[in-house]
Amino acid sequence: MDKSKSLEKSKPKRSLKSASDSVVRWFREMRSELKKVVWPTRKQLVRNCMVAIAMMVVCGIVFGAFDLLAQAVVFRFLIGTLGTLLTGGAVAPVAT
Fold this sequence. Notes:
It contains 3 helices and no strands. By secondary structure, it is mainly alpha-helical. It has one domain.
């Protein structure tokens, strides 16, 4: 216990100046790192955006079709089961 207290006391307190210096240093380092980035050309950016949009549309269609199929299966199962339970076995055909 005594050692942990002595360690806490031995740590120097950070002044406001050292905190602001570290923030300024962080921004300088960030700026220098951003200069190293190889940014895409306009042509690459447009092509990549088109690919992303196309994939979203395809996924939307696939998920929508799966949802409609699952909805139809669940609806038929629930109508068949509930209709049988409620009418005692005589179920009127569902108009589609």
